[in-house]
Write a structure and sequence with these properties.
This protein has 11 helices and 10 strands. With 263 residues, it is of the alpha/beta class. The protein has a 6-stranded mixed sheet, sandwiched between helices. Strand 1 and strand 2 (13-18) form a beta hairpin. The longest helix is centred in the middle third of the chain and has 21 residues, at 78-98. It is globular, with a radius of gyration of 19 Å.
Length: 263
Amino acid sequence: MSEPVLCEIADGVATLHLNRPKKLNAISYAMADAMLQWLDRLETDAAVGAIVLTGAGDRAFSAGADIHEFSETVQRDGAAALRDFVRRGQTLTARLEAYTKPVIAAVNGLAYGGGCEITEAVHLAVASETARFAKPEIRLGMPPTFGGTQRLPRLAGRKRALELLLTGESFSAERALEMGLVNAVVPAAEVLPAAQALAGRILVYSPLATASIITAVTRGLNMGIAEGLLAESEQFARLLPSHDLPEGLTAWIERRPAVYTGS
């Protein structure tokens, strides 16, 4: 059997490929575990400053969870379904959301169910103009379980999210852009290069500052404004003893490119 997730590293960007193209990159337990393992490994890799996540093949980013595998778990043991399916999926999307290096989805086809929830959780997303999105869990008699009932309303607003969650109807990349689910829509052949180029535009800056922004935004979304401002201040304070903050200020004053070390 081939690896469920493949990794390529070039120019400071790790590209993770969900690698079950014959199954439309459905998220099996093994794939979710492999993604978490790669995230752990890449987080401490100094040669990697950003991650791009895409689907193998040209049909799907991910068509969602592996329903056959999940269905067997549900029929065998409800407690196991909560542990093996729900918690695993929520752990994955929470890990992506809180990751301290930028994670960018290159949505190259179908992004249904769990595939849509991954797109909701990552920091940035670029979609192919032929990509389709859906929240079809209601057709299975269940709600989304990888965070979709929580993140989509925060991105799109309550009424628009509920329409998609309650009807299960698919929607276009352009509508995903309008709702704030993705940052850009590009021709199919350009989706992966566009995501990698977006990563490159971020990599020129201090990785410490990048991580502090991601952390402040992620935490602040679930806080009141006063708590959020405190979180922002805390992230700034963490940079005060670093090399990168004074280097960035000095480079700006001297009108030269900054040389960041991530320390």
